[in-house]
Design goal:
- The protein is of the alpha+beta class.
- It has two domains: about 110 residues, CBS-domain (Roll); about 90 residues, 2-Layer Sandwich (Alpha-Beta Plaits), CATH 3.30.70.
- The strands form three sheets. It has a four-stranded antiparallel beta sheet with strand order 8-9-7-10, with helices on one face.
- A hairpin with a 2-residue loop joins strand 5 and strand 6.
- The radius of gyration is 24 Å and the shape is elongated.
Amino acid sequence: MNVLHCMQRVPATVCPEARLREALQVMDEHGFGLLLVATKEGRLDGFLTRAFLNSVTDWEQAVGDVRFEAKFAVAPEDTLEKAALILLANQLVLLPVVEGGRLVGIVTQGEILRAMAHGLGVGLEAIRIVVLVRPESDDLFRILHVLERHDVRLVSMIRGRNGAKRERVILRVQHVADRDALFRDLDIALQEEKGADEEPERFSGAQTCSDA
C-alpha cells in the first residue's frame, strides 16, 4: 500500500508571511501540536510547534523568520513501510507528503498503523497459527504448500526474529475445513529434514481469534 491511500489531503497550513499570532490561532482552531508552513504557491517551507510558540514574546514576528526546516517528507507513491521507517527513525508524529515540490497532504503514525492493521487482517475472524522456522531454510515454502493443499485462505503472515536458530512466524488464516488435519500436516512438514541439534518441535500451536 502507498502513502496516497492513507494520507490526509490538503492539510491546514500557515504561510511564511503570516504573523505568529495567526499561526497560534490556526493551531488552536484545529487542535494541532505541529503546524506546517507552506508558501502561497503550495510549496513546503517548514513547520512550527506548539512548544516553540509557548515561548514566543513577539506575536507580530513573521512565521518565516522563526519556522523550523522540514527535513523529511514522502511522496504519494512512496510505500507505507518507507513512511513508517522515517517516522520511527526520527521520532516524528507526522510526515508531509510532497508531489512536484507542492505540499499535497500529511501522513501520521495513527494512519499508518490503521492501514497496516487493515493489511494484516486485524478485526477479521481468523485462526492464528504460530510456527518457528529456521532462517534461510525452505520452512516457509513447506508451510505455504500445506496451506495450499488444504485450500486455506492466508490473510496475513508476519515474520520476526525469535532467536539465533529460529524465527517466529504468525499466520492468520481462514476457510479451514479440518483444523486438526491442518495442524498435523504443518507439524509433519516442519519436522522434515530436521537436524540432530534441533528441537523436536517447531509447530507452536494455534488459536481462533477475532480482533473486532
